């Protein structure tokens, strides 16, 4: 299972990278704005900075919603760095653009996916990654994890290569449940990754080992 961090915050990206378990980064326009990164030139520079920190895939989202615009933007983003994955929304022109990018060998992440049907379409178009937003489904009393399970079943039925990137992960149990279901990737905040570390018995056990060691020294 790959771990991506879902942020545009460079300090958090560095921290996750230093932990040694980071496989990539996902961003979106909201995450960029949250870090105060606005304006096309600043956003482009920020992608380059992220690519310098991590060794894995970095999703960069297009803003255009028409086919020609998505193609132009996506090709420019893809040229920035070989780690860039062009993030395209699940809309009609987006699906067409994903097919175009796929034929040209440009990697894509189909974002804003909320149903198994959308995920099937993304895979048919040749998306590298599909991003079902599980937290946002949970927010409206719909089982986000069930969507991951549905997509896993469908992709396995036909051997689709598209990787399931569980997105809108909000906490550590989402990570564990996605791993149980067989999501290929999860993207979440640093806290969702660091939460995997924690167990009180580890802390108690370590404190006792250290105390016992001191007794003999
Ligand atoms: O990866 C998608 C993500 O950025 C959305 O997360 O927490 O805004 O639903 P959230």
Structure summary, number of beta strands: 8
| Individual helix count | 11
Which value, in Å, is the CA radius of gyration? Answer: 19 Å
**Shape category:** globular
Which tags fit this structure?
eight-stranded parallel beta barrel; globular; binds SN-glycerol-3-phosphate; 217 residues
Description of the molecule:
The chain is α/β, with parallel strands linked by helices and 217 residues long. The chain has helices at residues 10-19, 29-34, 40-53, 67-80, 92-103, 116-125, 134-139, 144-158, 172-181, 190-194, 200-215; strands at 2-6, 24-26, 57-61, 84-89, 108-113, 129-132, 163-166, 185-188. Strands 1-2-3-4-5-6-7-8 form an 8-stranded parallel beta barrel, surrounded by 7 helices. Helix 4 packs across helix 5 (92-103) and helix 5 packs parallel to helix 6. The protein is globular, with a radius of gyration of 19 Å. 36% of the residues are buried. The mean pLDDT is 97. SN-glycerol-3-phosphate binds next to helix 7. SN-glycerol-3-phosphate (G3P) binds at residues 6, 26, 28, 31, 131, 133, 135-136, 167-168, 170, 187.
Provide a short characterization of the protein structure:
The chain is an alpha/beta fold and 217 residues long.
SSE blueprint:
Blueprint: E1 2-6, H1 10-19, E2 24-26, H2 29-34, H3 40-53, E3 57-61, H4 67-80, E4 84-89, H5 92-103, E5 108-113, H6 116-125, E6 129-132, H7 134-139, H8 144-158, E7 163-166, H9 172-181, E8 185-188, H10 190-194, H11 200-215
Parallel strand pairs: 1-2, 1-8, 2-3, 3-4, 4-5, 5-6, 6-7, 7-8
Helix pairs in contact: 4-5, 5-6, 6-8, 8-9
